[in-house]
From TrEMBL:
Gene3D superfamilies hit by this protein: Spore Coat Polysaccharide Biosynthesis Protein SpsA, Chain A
Protein name: Guanyltransferase
Pfam families, per database record: NTP_transferase
Annotated region (Disordered), positions in chain: 1-21
Source organism per UniProt: Streptomyces inusitatus
Domain (Nucleotidyl transferase): residue spans on this chain: 1-226
Lineage, opening ranks: Bacteria, Bacillati, Actinomycetota, Actinomycetes, Kitasatosporales
Amino acid sequence: MILAGGQGSRLRPYTDDRPKPMVEIPGTGTPIIGHQLSWLAAEGVTDAVVSCGHLAEVLQEWLASAELPLRVTTVVEPEPLGRGGGLKYAAARLPHPDLPWYATNGDIWTRFSLREMAAFHAERDAVATLALARPRIPWGAVETDAFGHITDFIESPPSPYLINAGVYVFAAAFTELLPERGDHERTTFPGLARERRLAGFPLPNGAYWRAIDTAKDLTEAAKELAAQAR
């Protein structure tokens, strides 16, 4: 499932006439969702459900005209249900509701092995598994000694914390734990964590990952992807 219903307000003006997954990183020749569908297909996914919201018709029109590498179904919320409620509503359209399923936020540009993540999820008998990334801090960091002297400057160092990378593996039973309305990250995930049924899969070393939230993210992703292509 691709969660593509957000407003994308921090990406304006790019999202004034299209939903965030339809924004194109300069130089890639494809919108974010086009990259995601290619990645999912390469990982063996045959069916995708796209949960739409903001400017859903623009996304549906592109999906209808594009040559897609897998079967795609779109779902539009009849009213705002929150992230967890929207996820549950769209999950009703999964073609195999009795099997584990992947989900990804619609603004993630990444490449790593989903098969390895699924194996990690199964080994831990988890109800839900989150991919975890270690992003770079967007500011320069300062190191000091015990006396308070500055000893070094580090430009955009890696964060000491792992974050939710917006890619998931869910057991079939996860759907029933979702709220009808509201945010599963404030309800379902904390409950599973307390029960030790929530797993975290660190992205492999060298795996590319970026969330496209702002115009600056677009510019930086374009530079990074161009550098990879050289």
